[in-house]
Amino acid sequence: MSINNRQQSGSTLLEVLVAVLVLSIGLLGVASLQLYGLRYNQSAYLRSQATILAYDIIDRMRSNTNAVTAGSYDNIDTNILPTDPACISAGCTTVQLADHDIREWGSYFTQVPPLVPDARGTVTRAGSRFTVTVQWNETTSTANASQQVSYNFEL
Fold first, then answer.
1. Counting CB atoms within 10 angstroms of each CB, which of 48, 80, 110, 141 has the fewest?
2. What is the DSSP track for 44-71?
3. Residue 83's closest CA among 106, 52, 64?
């Protein structure tokens, strides 16, 4: 009984090609997962930075309740900022300190590079309730999506 070597030729090569094909598909899947992971990580980073910005002005308002009562923090928009008072070294009134706080908060949106690109912050008041909103455009490879975080609080 003799074994014909011609019947077996090329089968190992075919097995190797199938293994390379399966490995290639697996590696493409891993690369896709990595890409989505990076995209979602950037989104989470921007959301965290926006939350930090919102809490910054909330903490400033909590530390200056007299100016809050006087209405100094009502209807803030980071596109329209007050001039920075020159009283920081000599001591400020509560209203001047509020102007300084608003100016400092607005500088986070305009610094280079900004903490959150293409962002805008607002504070609105309805009675004793304040709403702090930070909006930004999140650019991905598929679309530009407008994102925001909003926090409501009372002092």
1. 141
2. HHHHHHHHHHHHHHHHHHHT-HHHHHHT
3. 106
Comparing 86 with 122, the larger pLDDT belongs to 122
Question: Sheet holding 129-139: strands in order across?
Answer: 76-77, 119-126, 129-139, 144-154
111-139: average pLDDT: 89
Which residues touch 28 (CB under 8 Å, ≥6 apart)? none
Number of domains in the chain: 1
The 10 Å Cβ neighbour count of residue 58 is 17
Can you say how many angstroms the Cα of residue 127 is from the centroid of all Cα atoms in its chain?
29
Residue 5 lies in a domain: no
% of the chain at pLDDT higher than 70: 88
| 132: Cα separation from own chain's centroid | 15
Residue 2 counted as domain residue:
no
Residue 44 within a domain: yes
Which residues span the domain enclosing 82?
Answer: 10-154
pTM of this prediction exceeds 0.85:
no
pLDDT band at 4 (very low <50, low <70, confident <90, very high): low
Task: Calculate Rg over the CA atoms of the chain.
Answer: 29
Q: Coil, strand or helix: which one is 81?
A: coil
